[in-house]
Structure formats: structure tokens, C-alpha cells
Specification:
Elements (H helix, E strand, L loop, with lengths): L1 H18 L14 H8 L12 H13 L1 H18 L4 H18 L2 H12 L1 H5 L3
Helix pairs in contact: 1-2, 2-3, 3-4, 4-5
């Protein structure tokens, strides 16, 4: 998404320059352009929601409304992170991972399907973590 937004904004700027007009670049309620939104949202996606600042929370709301697939991917990665960050028994971890596997299947994201297969290939070793 990011590279498409950069290319789109650059094309608008070039067209405006050729026509000697001011470019009409869409800005969101927080003042970001699409290009800025994607660039500035990059690092908030590495954090848990609880660690977001107010401006990051607002930016995430805009980002997820514009790109629902990014919200799905974020929720999947955050879900796996939460499983690992909890102090739970192995049987509970197995159940939570099974639910996460189901969510991954339903999402149809190739990258998460690869991760799911990797976890399944090393399932017993991974469960030893708990």
C-alpha cells in the first residue's frame, strides 16, 4: 500500500507542476496525507495497542478504516503476541493456538499461512515454552 500511495502522490505533484497548479492532495482529519499516514503508521504496527500514544491511536483508526486488511493482519500478529506474553499452562496455549490457527485460515493471508505451517512443524518444541 505504501509504495502505491507514494507513487500516486508523486504523480499528482508532477501533474500539478506541469499545469502550474497547486496539487489537490487528500489529507485526513489528523493532517496526514495518504503517503504520510502509511509512512508514520509503520512503527505503531510493531507496538501493542496499549502502548500507542493518543496521536498513534488516531492514526491507527484512520489507517484501519482506509486499509481493513492491515487491521486484520495487525490483529493476527497481536493475537499471537498475546498468547506468548501470557503466563498460561500448556493445555491453554494449545487451545489458544488452535483458535489462532483458525483465524489465520479464515484470513487467507499467505504470510500468516506460512507462519502457521512453521509453528505446526515445530509444535511440540514451541509448546515447551509454556
Amino acid at each position: 500500500h505504501r509504495w502505491e500511495a507514494i507513487e500516486q502522490e508523486n504523480n499528482l505533484l508532477m501533474e500539478a507542476k506541469e499545469k502550474k497548479n497547486n496539487p489537490e492532495i487528500e489529507t485526513f482529519e489528523n493532517g496526514d496525507t495518504r503517503k504520510q499516514l502509511l509512512a508514520r503508521s509503520r512503527y505503531l504496527l510493531y507496538k501493542t495497542r496499549e502502548k500507542w500514544t493518543a496521536s498513534q491511536n488516531q492514526r491507527a483508526e484512520i489507517l484501519f478504516s482506509q486499509y481493513p486488511d492491515l487491521e486484520k493482519a495487525y490483529n493476527l500478529s497481536d493475537g499471537l503476541r498475546k498468547i506468548y506474553n501470557q503466563n498460561i499452562q500448556k493445555s491453554v496455549a494449545m487451545l489458544k493456538l488452535a483458535h489462532w490457527f483458525k483465524e489465520v485460515e479464515e484470513s487467507r493471508f499467505k504470510a500468516f499461512s506460512v507462519l502457521r505451517k512453521t509453528i505446526m512443524n515445530h509444535y511440540n518444541e514451541i509448546l515447551n515454552y509454556f
